[in-house]
Amino acid sequence: MKKIAIFASGAGSNAQNIAEYFRNNERVKIECVLSNKTDAYVLERAKNLEIDTLTFSRDDFYNGKNVLHFLQLRGVDFIVLAGFLWLIPGYMLDAYNGRIINIHPALLPKYGGKGMYGMKVHQAVVAAHEIETGITIHHVNAKYDEGDIIFQAKCPVLDGDTPEMVAQKVHRLEYEYYPGVIEKMLEKL
Ligand code: GAR
Predict the structure, then answer these.
(1) pLDDT at position 43
(2) Given this chain, do its domains 1-97 and 103-177 carry the same CATH topology?
(3) Does 104 contact ligand 1 (Cβ within 6 A)?
(4) How far is CA 54 from CA 5, 8, 137, 143, 161, in A?
(5) pLDDT attached to residue 186
(6) Is 1-97 assigned to CATH 3.40.50.170?
(7) What is the mean pLDDT of the chain?
(8) Does residue 163 have a cis peptide bond before it, meaning omega lies within 30 degrees of 0?
(9) Mutation test residue for ligand 1: of 108, 122, 172, 174, the one with most atoms within 8 Å of CB
(10) What angle do CA 35, 96, 27 make, to 5 degrees?
(11) pLDDT tens digit sequence for 16-48
(12) What is the pLDDT of residues 119-171, one digit of tens each?
């Protein structure tokens, strides 16, 4: 049995989609959902899915090791970031070397880096008149959106598309591909 921890800061639609994908899988369990925001809607979703949660402060995360100890105590094998907006500290990268992945709502290396998340990405894509965008699933390292790329998928940006419309297309790609990519990564552990 491989155990996954999902880190999310916001709405958590990807977290829910991943949890539903693995719900009846005997080899994979979503062990817990972690968030830096005590009012993140993802926590509500986790509760409805009967998944345990942990919230933590900046101080907990960067100046202590309680979060890591929690993961280790629960036997977490793999960490999935799904709309999680903080950098992962070095001690956690070391402990989960090669076993932390993220999804970014654009075709990296374009539209990545600090401050580029969620709707801000889609607004920038529309403002630049891009004709396509998409998703990037990548390994996590000490910098925003710079880890090795594992998978990308594209969708068109049409004349007149609003950032909200682009967000919807990108979310569809995320729901379609993220769980399957996670499953493949787990097979390699
Ligand atoms: C997703 O689109 C994800 O790609 C993005 O935040 C959204 C979270 O939506 N992540 C980033 O922008 C990371 N830089 P969700 O909370 O509904 O899953």
Answers:
(1) 98
(2) yes
(3) yes
(4) 10, 11, 24, 24, 38
(5) 97
(6) yes
(7) 97
(8) no
(9) 174
(10) 80
(11) 999 999 999 999 999 999 999 999 999 999 999
(12) 999 999 999 999 999 999 999 999 999 999 999 999 999 999 999 999 999 99
Q: Is the CB of 7 under 6 A from ligand 1?
A: no
- Enumerate the active-site residues: 104
The number of the ligand 1 atom at minimal distance from the alpha carbon of 10 is: 16
CATH architecture observed for domain 103-177: 3-Layer(aba) Sandwich (3.40)
Residue nearest ligand 1's atom 3 by CA: 83
